[in-house]
Fold these 3 entries.
Entry 1:
Amino acid sequence: MCMGNICRSPTAESLFRHHATEAGLLDAFDIDSAGTGGWHAGDPPDGRMHEAAMERGIELVGQARQIVHEDLNRFHHVLCMDGDNLQGVLQLGEGSAAVSLMLSHHQPSGLEDVPDPYYGGASGFAHVVELLDVACRNLLQDLIDRHELEA
């Protein structure tokens, strides 16, 4: 979950999908991303983010959408890129999903928030891909361990 669903959250979605596929577990997960704002709804992922992800062999696909309250019951986990988006998700109300920060799965990073690269240069996009790659790998392993999935 990020602001507009064109940079950080579609990257996390694509990275997690990639790692779940490599582990042979894609069918075990319902993977999606959304933004707390709707101003980019229908847009593809940001081209600069797509380029940074492609450097790691990850293609970003999909169209931006805004989170809706039903997502809090559709998914088991809603992972937010920063504290502002976490608060935006919590304002949607109660649901069965566990809502947390994405970088809680990137230990020890020393960071709580995935920085928003939108107004920065190429190095910011590459840094976000790196942070999210580690967090997605750790998240997948945590889910495998917690639910005793066969990878």
Note: The mean pLDDT is 96.
Entry 2:
Amino acid sequence: MFKTNPKLTARLRRKQRIRKRIKGTGERPRLAVFRSNKNIFAQIIDDERGITLAAVSSIDGTIRQRLGELGSKRDVAAEVGRLLAKVAGEKGIKRIAFDRGGNLYHGRVKALAEAAREGGLEF
């Protein structure tokens, strides 16, 4: 890690600690969340096969069109969580392992997780 920003360094260390324990399997894939300043991305990944089963982000067309009516970034993250749960349900995925990507379980990451739970995902 050559980054000198202390917040980034701390997030990357948390990310490594989390990834040591969480592995996505075929029966319980991993929900990986990445949060940038403007957008939020979520993927459901099977680490055993090394493939992404489903992916949704705030820059997808369906969400991008509704950014004005959704309002805050937290509302956008919740919409991403609901859409991800819908896509996962269509593919037969019910149970997942949540990987917050080193981010604190707070704000947009929490909103995405709670919306995914409401949509039917178990973690």
Note: The helical segments are 6-21, 61-64, 67-70, 73-90, 108-118.
Entry 3:
Amino acid sequence: MFSKTCEYAIRAVMFIAQKTRDGSRVSVKEVAKGIDSPEYFIAKILQELGRKGLLQSAKGPSGGFYLDHHTLNQSLADIVRAVDGDKIFSGCGLGLKQCSESRPCPIHRQFKAIRSQLMELLEQSRIGSFSRELEAELTFLRR
């Protein structure tokens, strides 16, 4: 459903949110290990998310990535839009360009309902809300 880049971005941001609750920062290496992702790939993703304001970074010996109050309150939909765009919220389930209300594809109506539910779920899911469950190991981010 999401691109591989988007999946890694979501997992990385959740990991960073959990690990930096105490004000600390995490390195690319820590994030890559924590979510079981290639370090080079995750470095590019984190750099782009930082440019788009979805996470913070600091350079230097005590540097790394972290989330502030503002970024913790962003939604998962914000990450999806930043990485994959909004096609998942408005595109055709079969990938047809001409699919519309007046000229629907065979799954248009059903997919429209699913798209709407997915958008609502991702809009309501705040980045900072997953930290407690991750900390208690009720949920996980590694493959």
Note: The domain at 4-85+126-135 is CATH 1.10.10.10 (Arc Repressor Mutant, subunit A).
